[in-house]
Design goal:
The chain is α/β, with parallel strands linked by helices. The chain has five helices and 15 strands.
Length: 223
């Protein structure tokens, strides 16, 4: 049976805080961008402590804001309270933190994304990164030992990304892929002796993309 096939400049995998900012940055540069998420209800989801700013994240929010990002603007529209931390200490460690209305923060960011030109949102699981060999391009020199113990030399062929494939078989050709998967790659929620293969808030884990990354020579670690 025929599968869906579309063309874009950039593909963003994941619609958390990082994915939203990456997709908006690409689209605002005029690149035709598509953003994938396992659920449109999880766009800019705050599954843990729903705040923006604070002693550690505050620096990042300021940098995003300076670069034209949306997080600072979105929390300004949706916070329910804010507090300046460390006021009893010196000004160098003062840090503003805003507590968000979780649902409104998600809805507000989704409205911004849906009303951004050159940006498409698609609910699907990306299962494979598609690549092709670059003719005449070779990677770093590598020495190996053959079956007979003799030393052999090889130059691994360089590859470039040409698109992604979803679990359903749809292909989205592109020039660049941004991975903002967060903790969803083969995610597990562990409580006591129970290990449950699921993402945060009961959302679906991304169980197939890891194999594709490994096949392309990317080492995976569990944090």
């Amino acid at each position: 049976m025929p599968y869906l096939e579309e063309n874009y400049d950039a593909v963003v995998v994941g619609a958390g805080h990082a994915g939203c900012e990456a997709a908006l940055a690409c689209a605002r540069l005029g690149l035709e961008t598509i953003m994938f998420t396992v659920s449109v209800d999880s766009i800019a989801l705050m599954p843990c402590n729903p705040n923006v700013g604070g002693s550690s994240k505050g620096h990042l929010v300021r940098e995003l804001d300076a670069l034209g990002g949306e997080m600072g603007k979105n929390i300004d529209k949706t916070f329910i309270q804010s507090k300046m931390l460390n006021e009893s200490k010196g000004p160098a460690v003062h840090s503003l933190r805003a507590q968000a209305d979780k649902q409104e923060y998600t809805r507000s960011m989704r409205r911004v994304l849906e009303n951004t030109d050159h940006l498409t949102i698609r609910q699907a699981e990306v299962a494979e990164i598609l690549t092709e060999e670059i003719p005449g391009e070779y990677g770093t020199f590598k020495e190996e030992h053959g079956e007979n113990g003799q030393q052999e030399s090889s130059y691994p062929v360089k590859k470039r990304i040409i698109g992604v494939k979803t679990y359903s078989g749809a292909i989205y050709k592109c020039r660049a892929v941004v991975l903002a998967t967060g903790v969803y790659l083969r995610a597990r929620c562990i409580y006591g002796d129970v290990s449950n293969p699921t993402g945060p808030n009961g959302l679906q884990a991304a169980n197939h993309l890891t194999d594709s990354l490994k096949a392309n020579g990317i080492e995976m670690y569990r944090f």
